[in-house]
Amino acid sequence: MNEHGKIIYSHIDPSDTVLDLGCGILQEFGYSPPVDKYLGVDVFDPYLRKIADQGVMTIRGKLPDVCDSFLDNSWNIVLLADVIEHLTKEDGLELLDHAERIAKKCVIIDTPNGFEPQEGWDAWGLPYCQFQAHLSGWTDQEFTERGYSCSLIKNRTPKGKPVTSVIAVRYA
User: Fold this and answer.
1) Confidence of residue 129 (pLDDT cuts 50, 70, 90)
2) Which residues contact 26 (CB under 8 A, 6 or more apart)?
3) Domains: count for the chain
4) Which domain does 105 fall in, by range?
5) Residue 30: what are its φ and ψ, rounded to 5°?
């Protein structure tokens, strides 16, 4: 589990249900889900196949559209780890509205603080993924204005570039 995963996990009880929107390959958690009652949602099949091979429950869906499938207050935790920056600002705001509606306990977000340019690429040795491109930037101030508590963390991108990330948490 990396530093981000440890911070995120500090907000999760082992008995919580976790809906991970834009789950990728679970790199924050050492490539396995943080709880037993976990559902990973992603648009990119190779990511889903990689974690499904480990017995992780997954569904394929495009954000924010797939969120219409989830009832209000139906998951304890809604996790948006390294995903919101891959959406347009408009779709990201809609995703936040959905996440806040779905979460019974809290929403946890992990994203670069501000716009961090990135094109699509073949992350983690998997096939090229156009969805890796960053389409928007988000700041701790924006999340604070929505009622989130934020922490800033010095980090490196998967390609090794220094970046400051924000972890934002909003309890219901």
Assistant:
1) low
2) 20, 32, 33, 40, 51, 56
3) 1
4) 3-171
5) 70, 30
